[in-house]
Amino acid sequence: MKINDGFEVILRRLPVEVSEDIAGLPQDILLKLEEIRIVAGHPILIYADNKEYCLGKTRDHTFVDNVFRSMTDYSEYAYQEELSKGYITIEGGHRIGVCGRTIYNDGQVLSIKDISSLNIRKCREIPGISDWLIPYVLDSEGRFLHTLIISPPRCGKTTLLRDMIRNLSIMGFRIALCDERSEVAGSFLGSSGFDLGPRTDVLDGCPKEVGMVMLIRSMAPDILATDEVGKTEDIYGIENTLSAGVGLLTTIHGLDYKNVLSSRIGYLVKNGVFKRLIYLSGKPCTGTISAICDSDNHKLF
Amino acid sequence: MIKYLLALVIIGSGIAAGYLQARPYRNRTVHLRDLNLAINMLEGDMNYKRDTLLTLLKRNGTKIDNLSGVFFFKVCEKLQSVYTYDFSVAWRDSALEVYGHGSLTHEDLEYLVDMGMELGRTDLAGQKNMFDRTKKRLEAQERAAIEENINKGRLYKGIYSALGILTVIVLI
User: Which DSSP helix (H) or strand (E) runs through B130?
Assistant: First the structure.
């Protein structure tokens, strides 16, 4: 398996002394690196393969602010909407969680200022991880079955989704990807940062409830893929997809079946809309597929 | 015949010297006008396209065929050449490099450098306020520069031309 991480995008935006420290870490840590956490008043923490590594001296608030400015390409306004949700996605699909003082008005977070901590989550492409499970998401006539990938955060949902899209696209399915957070495709200036196959169309940065409907009308896909459903508004997009006869491939945060049933799309799962439920776990390592179930949550694998 | 030719040369030199002396005033109006236009373009693109500053400066730097285009390019160059080079520092250094030895006054430069302190640091509403303030300041500078160009420019041209004629009269 080849690991394409585009990690230099992150290193380029970090101060030289930090990027040199990180680049100097052993190769196996770099390959498995998942997160870089920068908190004002504390040293930088690096997470790789479920282990924590501490990097150098304590960093002050100015340092965190400088890294944030560099991550946004000195253009906070360009990330305004994402920032109001608490994160930004940079070139290559890497997501950066942001904490600080929120600017709150009319029941809405407008922005975050006085940045106090950053969580840089490395985005990875691991071609081939979904090869063996593709037969599970197709019926006997080779038609795609609505599939939901379920896992807690940091278990590799997006990485698996990305590879499934690539595989299905190569197999001949026309796929439309609604990439609200620019994480799946890692789009930058119109080109996708990852290999999503030859038949994948990407609508980047568009809210799912709008984007899913747009894609059905404009791109006539066989499968509509999207990451992290769960908002009330997403249901509108999902229902449109289902009524249009388009296959749905999506992910949701959750630990188990019960957890998903209590989510906003719980009734869809309960009614057996999703014919395949793929459970991911972080044990023994990130991206472990713990089960593949049918619509009644009966284990197929 | 030589005498007349010499007289013409002296008068011509006087006029040329006047133009040379008045040129900085003219240049200042041109630079300020170009800067205002470039800043307007930057603001328009920022509102409409919401690309990052690097992309906007690079794109506008290519489109604009004058000193403000060079300035935009210089900022990009500095930001890309040094890791996490502070934006306001890159902006200030580029402003000083491109305009520092030219015709802009200390005050013009100060307003331009001030803009770099806030550019990109806030949301769109904040950026709009910053653009409005900078444009107002630079437009006022431009009006003052036009007036200065008319008054002092004309004065220098007049004085040097008169000096040329006077020299010719004295020599004759």
Answer: helix B124-148
Which has the minimum average pLDDT: A262-266, B147-151, B155-159?
Answer: B155-159
Q: What is the pLDDT of residues A74-114, one digit of tens each?
A: 999 998 888 888 888 888 888 899 999 988 888 888 888 88
CB within 8 Å: B51 and A78? yes
Q: Which region, left, alpha or beta, applies to residue A173 given φ > 0 means left and ψ of -120 to 50 means alpha?
A: beta
For A234-269, give the DSSP string.
Answer: HHHHHHHHHHTT-EEEEEEE-SSHHHHHTSTTHHHH
User: How many angstroms separate the Cα of B58 from the Cα of each of A91, B41, B54, B69?
Assistant: 17, 12, 6, 9
Which position has the token pair 């949550």? A297
Using CA atoms of A98, A101, A107, A109 in order, give the dihedral in degrees to the nearest 10. -30
Q: Are A67 and A14 in contact (CB under 8 A)?
A: yes
- DSSP lists the bridge partners of residue A35 as A47, A121
- Separation in Å, CA B7 to CA A201, B19, B20, B35, B159: 78, 19, 20, 42, 17
pLDDT at A18 over 80: yes
> Which SS3 state, helix, strand or coil, does residue A225 take?
strand
Sequence-ordered list of residues with C-beta below 8 angstroms from that of B133, at least 6 positions apart, any chain:
none
Residues 148-167 of B with CB under 8 A from A: none
Only one residue has tokens 């006047």, namely: B18
Which H or E element spans position B131?
helix B124-148
- pLDDT attached to residue B79: 85
Confirm whether pTM is higher than 0.80: no
What pLDDT digit, counting tens, does each position of A183-207 carry?
Answer: 898 887 777 878 899 999 999 888 8
Sheet-wide strand order for A247-253: A200-204, A175-179, A223-226, A247-253, A147-151, A276-281, A288-293
- As a whole number of angstroms, the distance between CA A97 and CA A68 comes to 10
Alpha-carbon distance of B68 to B40, in angstroms, equals 12
Q: pLDDT-derived band of residue A29, with 50, 70 and 90 as boundaries?
A: confident
Q: A91 CB near a chain B CB, below 8 Å?
A: no
Q: Which residue of B has its CA nearest to A69?
A: B121
A284 cis-preceded (ω within 30 degrees of 0):
yes
Token pair, residue B42, equals: 């930057």
Question: Across the interface, do A189 and B122 touch by the CB < 8 Å criterion?
Answer: no
DSSP H or E run through A87: strand A87-89
Q: Does B81 contact A at CB distance below 8 Å?
A: no
Is residue A68 exposed (0-12), middle (13-18) or buried (19+ Cβ within 10 Å)?
buried
State whether ipTM is beyond 0.90. no
